[in-house]
Design a protein that fits this description.
Blueprint (H helix, E strand, L loop, with lengths): L1 H8 L3 H11 L3 H27 L13 H29 L9 H17 L9 H27 L3 H31 L10
Helix pairs in contact: 1-2, 2-6, 3-4, 3-5, 4-5, 4-7, 5-6, 6-7
């Protein structure tokens, strides 16, 4: 049901946001009905793409990862995505009073889930991990995520549009910080042994 409403958010948002707000999805339902599947798209796709097709920046030969290293990276990536959405939901809940919203953690989790969906769906590009293709689709998904965020916050949080704009900007800033932090954490993970291992030519 939640996945159906998320798809509705992406195409005819105003009426769907009201339905979502009134439905009162739980934190667990966000995971079992949507996130467990959506967050798996990118790790599974990149596992297949980097082991079977190979990674390329657009010139030269394709480089493949070993199955073992690709699997470990995919598992860590999956856990990071699941945790990242929950963290953003908690931050939204922490900030909401500042902007006059009076919602619960569950609604904040639904908002985080809905707005993250385009980026999570864009993970399918991992099946063909060509750099320009992945970046291009990723940027388009990011733009649509921003659109959903700015249109959804006033509706789901039930606040005026001007406050919703400021709240959305704050959420977007936090989201970018989380993204950068996830990228930076890869350096630490490499030191712990979760590093790519390439197939010998």
């Amino acid at each position: 049901m939640l996945l159906h409403q998320i798809s509705g958010v992406m195409f005819h948002q105003q009426s769907i946001w009201t339905n979502i707000r009134e439905r009162n999805y739980t934190f667990i339902e966000c995971y079992t009905h949507a996130l467990l599947w959506l967050c798996a798209i990118a790790p599974v796709s990149f596992f297949i793409g980097t082991t079977q097709v190979g990674w390329s920046i657009g010139t030269g030969e394709y480089v493949k990862l070993t199955t073992g290293s690709a699997f470990m990276i995919a598992v860590v990536f999956y856990i990071a995505l699941l945790a990242g959405v929950a963290f953003i939901a908690h931050v939204i809940h922490w900030m909401e009073k500042t902007y006059g919203a009076d919602s619960d953690l569950e609604h904040c989790m639904v908002l985080a889930t809905c707005t993250a969906t385009p980026l999570l769906l864009a993970g399918i590009t991992g099946l063909w991990p060509m750099l320009w293709f992945v970046v291009g689709v990723g940027l388009a998904a990011l733009a649509y995520t921003v659109y959903i965020l700015y249109s959804g916050v006033p509706e789901l949080m039930n606040i005026p549009a001007d406050r919703g704009f400021m709240f959305s900007t704050s959420i977007l800033t936090v989201g970018m910080v989380v993204l950068v932090s996830m990228l930076a954490s890869t350096v630490v993970l490499w030191d712990l042994g979760v590093a790519p291992s390439f197939v010998s030519a």
